[in-house]
């Protein structure tokens, strides 16, 4: 069977015009032609669901991801020397890497059995909205089927490392249960009905298209800088109930009280990332780790350095609020055995969020 890329159908009333499924391929035995088709599909469609990969070997999954970025180190993107129990902060517990895979990690909740792909007796724990949100849902609401988007993000340690180009999520065992109601709880009244265990995506190319011409000029010429050891630095601050953007309040950790860091590992990133295949521009910033904005209205204009946390928060939330609506969010359906792949860098077209 030949490989087939099929764009996702856009639901009535939806503005989430991205995503595709791929059939007719076995990632354990990938030809160069099929690899190039999948590579281009990731950058064109931004999120792809490769169907029927029940027998995919973890080592082959990692081999595929590394093939997309052969210059990168052969480790998981969050398994750098700078990520330790002391520095992981709001990222939560350290990742469990599947033995023999080099860099495929287990993501889930609860006991995974006596032997799960070589991991012995593992009880997985992932962060939830209870850890991240300013006003978590009550246990009664959760019991009645309410949930939240935890934290929209793109994947990256950020300190001492660049974001991974592509993230892949293989669904080994999917949660079972009735549909859930995602609540914004921000005064908008927005809700979405979703199946448990899926992943939500926002297209930050669409976010860029929502900017005014003046805002585009600023974004095109501006940069942002995360804090060192950013997931510790973010301190007691919380994410808004919608799952994107920072809530008011909370305190960051002073630089002198952070785990050891060096200035050479504090990178600066553009606000706008350009897709290498399509040339499309995307507005891409991680709101929870930004310490400094370098704003310019044009190539010849003077640069304004913004370090005031409240000004940074309101600047970013003003942009984020335009896209944070149900009609702009894609929650693609996938089943056990499917593998989801999404464009994370360059350009990291999406903010992703596990449900």
TrEMBL record:
Q: Does the keyword Signal apply?
A: no
Q: Where is the TauD/TfdA-like domain?
A: 16-345
Q: GO: which molecular function terms?
A: dioxygenase activity; metal ion binding
Cofactors needed by this protein, per the record, are: Fe(2+)
Q: Which UniProt keywords apply?
A: Dioxygenase, Iron, Metal-binding, Oxidoreductase
The domain of life for this entry's organism is Eukaryota
Q: In the UniProt record, does the keyword Cell wall biogenesis/degradation occur? A: no
Pfam families listed in its UniProt record? TauD (PF02668)
Q: Which residues form a coiled coil?
A: none
Query: In which family does this protein belong, per the annotation?
Result: Belongs to the TfdA dioxygenase family.
Name of the protein in its database record: TauD/TfdA-like domain-containing protein
What is the organism lineage in this UniProt record?
Eukaryota, Fungi, Dikarya, Ascomycota, Pezizomycotina
